[in-house]
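User: Design a sequence. Structure:
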């Protein structure tokens, strides 16, 4: 009673000052939210801030952040209802390998977080794909979902078919496969820059019978080659996402797509591995922002057919520089043809911005790194020259050297 009496008799200004000092400590804020009604509003304000709450899970099974979150943010509490953004983060993604990833706790439930709008899951291992999709489907208010460096456990034998192959073939382990049901989802971002055999999970995200009204979709995939194309070194295709694109074609406004395979080739005869994906994309009538990242110099740099040419406002193209294949002058010629197409005002009346990024691709025949800065400068100048057609019609053109991951 003494604690409650003391808490209730403090001036509001002092209460606000105390809570503000604790704004970076979500455990303390959760305690303030239940200490006394006079403290609740200020604590809830901080808990619902755009920065949200980050749960670090560097090890397993000892995860203090998860244990404390489950204990403090219980169903029906004001602090649980206040959480608008939650990040679950394992080891540093840049340093992690499959064996380093921490399994996502099967005791973690988020369905009681009624205000959860943004969820970021980074650098964790999924042990059961169906359980994970059910876990996500509990977040009925979710509008923004990001999955970064999320791995799937390989089959116990280590040599059987991977999840990628089994689910790509439509094989279910038992009964009907689970699907993701997020009726409010508007933005889906997937970044798998390390390649953790995660395509099986990502291929299932769009399998719902009632597709979410997704407006922004980012697919930044890096899958290891498996199956019949493994020996040939082919990159796994993104055709499995064609159904997802078709399901959200009436709402999709922003598409960023890349298939990163730094150690393996994309089909040398162009984008045949992606035909179904681009075919589905070509039927989307409302795309306003489009970003394409070509990860392999063997890929043909082509501008896909687009049904939303009349409303396209921004186009970003990112590609690697390589001194051998294709030759830089060949790429420049292709980009010149692309510029001629985009400069047609009657076909692209809404276009206001075109960005081209060039990143270094290491050449193992040259040391220590290829290409040299001078080569890149000449290359980007050539690209600017062929894009002058766009500047003449008033389109803002930007050509720059970027990092391999700086493409959105």
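Assistant: Done.
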């Amino acid at each position: 009673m003494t604690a409650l009496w003391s808490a209730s008799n403090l001036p509001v200004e002092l209460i606000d000052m105390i809570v503000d000092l604790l704004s970076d400590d979500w455990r303390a804020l959760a305690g303030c939210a239940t200490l006394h009604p006079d403290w609740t509003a200020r604590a809830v304000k901080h808990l619902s801030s755009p920065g949200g709450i980050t749960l670090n899970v560097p090890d397993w099974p000892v995860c203090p952040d998860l244990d404390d979150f489950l204990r403090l943010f219980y169903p029906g509490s004001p602090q649980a209802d206040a959480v608008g953004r939650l990040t679950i983060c394992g080891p540093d993604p840049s340093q992690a390998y499959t064996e380093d990833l921490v399994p996502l706790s099967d005791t973690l439930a988020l369905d009681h977080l009624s205000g959860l709008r943004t969820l970021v899951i980074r650098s964790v291992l999924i042990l059961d794909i169906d359980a994970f999709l059910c876990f996500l489907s509990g977040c009925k208010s979710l509008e923004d979902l990001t999955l970064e460096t999320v791995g799937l456990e390989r089959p116990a034998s280590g040599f059987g078919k991977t999840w990628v192959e089994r689910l790509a073939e439509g094989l279910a382990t038992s009964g009907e496969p689970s699907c993701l049901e997020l009726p409010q989802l508007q933005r889906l971002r997937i970044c798998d820059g390390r390649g953790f055999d995660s395509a099986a999970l990502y291929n299932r995200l769009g399998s719902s019978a009632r597709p979410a009204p997704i407006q922004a979709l980012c697919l930044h995939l890096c899958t290891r080659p498996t199956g019949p194309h493994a020996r040939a070194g082919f990159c796994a295709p993104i055709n499995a996402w064609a159904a997802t694109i078709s399901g959200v074609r009436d709402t999709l406004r922003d598409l960023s797509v890349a298939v990163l395979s730094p150690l393996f080739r994309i089909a040398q005869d162009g984008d045949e591995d992606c035909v179904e994906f681009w075919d589905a994309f070509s039927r989307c009538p409302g795309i306003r922002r489009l970003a394409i990242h070509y990860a392999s110099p063997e890929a043909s740099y082509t501008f896909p057919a687009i049904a939303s040419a009349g409303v396209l406002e921004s186009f970003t193209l990112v590609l690697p520089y390589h001194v051998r294949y294709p030759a830089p002058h060949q790429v420049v010629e292709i980009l010149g043809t692309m510029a001629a197409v985009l400069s047609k005002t009657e076909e692209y009346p809404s276009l206001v911005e075109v960005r081209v990024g060039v990143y270094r691709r290491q050449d193992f025949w040259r040391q220590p790194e290829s290409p040299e800065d001078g080569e890149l400068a000449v290359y980007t100048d050539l690209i600017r020259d062929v894009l002058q057609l766009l500047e003449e019609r008033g389109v803002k053109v930007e050509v720059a050297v970027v990092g391999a991951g700086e493409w959105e």
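The longest strand covers residues 314-321. The mean pLDDT is 76.
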